[in-house]
Structure formats: structure tokens, C-alpha cells
Amino acid sequence: MRLQAKVAIITGVSREGQIGQAVAQEFAREGARLVLAARNTANLEARAKEVEALGAEVVWVAADLTQEEQVQNLIQQALHRFGRIDILVNLAGGLSRVKPAAEHSLEDWNAELSNNLLTAFLCSKAVFKPMQEQKGGVIINFARAGLAHARMVAYNCAKAGVEALTRTFAIEGRKYGMRVNAVAPGLVDTKDNLEAMKPSPEELAKWVKREEIAKAVVFLASDEASGILGQVLEVPGRLF
Questions:
Q1: CA atoms within 13 A on the CB side of 165
Q2: Least packed by Cβ within 10 Å: which of 43, 82, 109, 197?
Q3: 158 vs 72, 120, 154, CA distance in Å?
Q4: Residue 155 among the catalytic residues
Q5: Which fold has domain 7-235?
Q6: Average pLDDT, integer, range 171-193
Q7: What pTM value is reported for the model?
Q8: Strand (E) positions, 12-107?
């Protein structure tokens, strides 16, 4: 098991059929002890029961990760239960505003940047000191593969910010033995994407699978990636 006894916080582990569910389950299979966080209590509890069934020790914390005090509570609960934090996976966020760039309101802009960039910043900032003190740790963020797409300007900018955030924390954390990287998925076979886009079998065959994303995250979290720092690992699927 590549993550045996490692303590991992995974944010954005909520609804069924999404990337967070797949990542949490793969971490459980690799032996990690888990702290799961999301806003929706019922969904979060359901995901926690799933990973417990795989033999993982798990704590779940309902939290709005755009609020710094709730982020701090998440970190303190993880430290109280396990005494350390080895891995943070910043998965909270997602695309919620799709419209022409000139029609994005200020509220649209703030919402996308808060959900996708602010959450990653606040969580990374909060684990930095514990990882610094224990002289090691891994942070994995979520960017996006490929060029920017139309009708999602705020989301595109948020994900570009995540790449800059990743490289900045990587530079500042390396002297403490920390590794910070990002995964950049292409079009993923999440339940939401399948329902919204209704791909043909031929189209779906080109998409990246949730399980493939989860395995990429496990790789970056494991000692196998000990020489990788400040990188964005694209997992685009079979589009080329």
C-alpha cells in the first residue's frame, strides 16, 4: 500500500459519481487515514461510510472552505484525531457559471474564484505550518488540462490561479521537505458531466475516467513522486 498510515485531508468529497468519491476510495485502498470535508453533511457522511467499508479510518467535517475559521476548524480536527497531516488534496470547487465572458457578473466572478481558488489558498495556508513543523507533507491541487474554453471566463481564471498557487507554495515549502503539485484533468466521466453532455459511446471512450484521476493523485501523494515539485500533471484522456 503506497499510502499506508498516511493522514490525508481530501476536500470536496460530496456527491456520488464525482472525482472526490473516486479519490477518497482509492486513498482508502492504499491504506491512508482520511479526513473528508465538504459542505453537504448528508453526502459527506455517505462518502465516509463508503471508505470505512474499505477498511479506512475516517473523520468527516462539514465545512464551507471559503470561510477561514471553518478551514482552521478542519485542520484542528484532523490534528486532534491523528496528530499530523501528511497529505492535503484540494478538490473543493467546480464549474458553476457558464455564460459568455461579457455576461459574467461580479457575483459570478467572485463565486468561481472563491470556490476554486480561495478554498485551495486557505486550506494550503492552514496546513503549511503543521507540515513545516513536521518537516514534510504533500499538497495536491486541481487545475485543468488544455486551453481555456469559452463561456467560463471566471472558472478559467480561477484554475490559472491554482497553477500559480501551486508553484508558489512549492517554492516556499521545498526547504521544509514539502511537495506541492497539481493534477489537471481533461473531460472526466463524472455523473454531472454525463448527465449534462450525454456523450455518445465513441465520445465517452475519449474521456478520462474518475478512477484514472484518482490513481494520478495517489501517485503524486506517494513516495514514488518524491522528485516531483511544482508541476501540473495533465491527465487529458484519449483526445489526441
A1: 26
A2: 197
A3: 22, 10, 6
A4: yes
A5: Rossmann fold (3.40.50)
A6: 95
A7: 0.97
A8: 33-38, 58-62, 87-89
Banded pLDDT at 76 (limits 50, 70, 90): very high
Q: For residues 16 and 49, is the Cβ–Cβ distance under 8 A?
A: no
Distances, alpha carbon 13 to alpha carbons 7, 44, 49, in Å: 16, 6, 12
Interhelix angle 153-173/119-133, rounded to 10 degrees, is 10
Enumerate the β-bridge partners of residue 136. Answer: none
Residues 145, 18: Cα–Cα separation, whole Å? 17
**Contact, 93 vs 14, CB < 8 A?**
no
Residue owning grid cell 472525482:
19
Which are the contacts of 192, defined by CB distance < 8 A and separation ≥ 6? 15, 17, 18
Local structure of residue 30 (DSSP, 8 states): T
Cα–Cα–Cα angle for 186, 190, 194, rounded to 5 degrees? 100
Reported residue count of the chain is 240
- pLDDT category of residue 209 using cuts at 50, 70 and 90: very high
- The mean of the pLDDT values for the chain is 95
Q: Which of 60, 155, 169, 207 is catalytic?
A: 155
Per-residue model confidence (pLDDT) at position 145: 83
Average pLDDT over residues 220-237: 97
Dump pLDDT digits (tens) for 6-62: 999 999 999 999 999 999 999 999 999 999 999 999 999 999 999 999 999 999 999
Closest CA to 90 of 159, 32, 151: 159
| Dist. CA 204–CA 207, nearest whole Å | 5
